[in-house]
Amino acid sequence: MEEGQRCTSYFFVIKGCLRLFFTDDKGVEHTLQLALENWWMTDIDAFRSERQSGYTIQALETTEVLVITDRNYELILAKLPVMEKYFRLIYERAYAASLSRIRMISRMPKDEFYDLFRTKYPAFMQRVPQKILASFLGFTPEYLSELRKRK
Amino acid sequence: MEEGQRCTSYFFVIKGCLRLFFTDDKGVEHTLQLALENWWMTDIDAFRSERQSGYTIQALETTEVLVITDRNYELILAKLPVMEKYFRLIYERAYAASLSRIRMISRMPKDEFYDLFRTKYPAFMQRVPQKILASFLGFTPEYLSELRKRK
Predict the structure, then answer these.
(1) A 23-52 → B contacts, CB under 8 A
(2) Consecutive H or E run containing B144
(3) A84, A92, A103 ranked by CB distance to B32: nearest
(4) Chain B contact set for A84 (CB, 8 A)
(5) Fewer Cβ atoms within 10 Å of its own Cβ: the N or the C terminal residue of chain A?
(6) Using the beta-carbon criterion (under 8 Å), do B85 and A77 form an inter-chain contact?
(7) Closest CA to A42 of A74, A65, A25
């Protein structure tokens, strides 16, 4: 998925790792989300409102995904009531996780945030490149490498 | 709802305004969410996992709410399939909004964030006390008042 193109795809990771990022005015890439196996990823706002994506999605490893289009997403929800429950649970959790992330990036001391993140998501620590991990955590790569050495 | 108590209530605002906040080690209150008419509010993570709330919910005006308990929330979803669709849509939007908030608080220059927020949510600007609005936006009250004068 490319920033600026109409967002019609919703990805489900079978195997591998995706990241969702945007590029600011200065050309710096900012990673907002990461997805490992069994996670969904898209620019949900653009996907649901048939607008251009504000983000790019990139594979960080050789990645296998399932893709559903916006039309088929509507169709599957209309035809299979169990999918309403499935996506209600997916969003409920995604929403809860994003609120806890807002709390963390807003207020938590950086090293506490780092400890919590590596406890909660050890797979990310091993599989995501340092530079991208730093961008996701809101750290400079130098600060992340310093933290890693210290812990 | 009080921080530290078991979270069993989910609020729907009929009339009025709620805020969700936590108090840090230094006694400073941080506002994470605001809810006007027709919005839902709870500590969704604690509500769904039957844990203690990490937040307090407070009414900022004389507020009328509907309350659903965790048990009845499960019941209504099991009994009425249309409620799965209803909450799927509620969370889909809430999730999209929280991602856009993460993008804004992480990276956007403060005055751009302020402009976007007041354009998108003019009701909050009028109804929420300055101090709480500043805390929600991640500004000091002084900086918010300076921005207001400048615009």
Answers:
(1) 24, 30, 32-33, 44-45, 48
(2) helix B141-150
(3) A103
(4) 81, 84-85, 88
(5) C
(6) yes
(7) A65
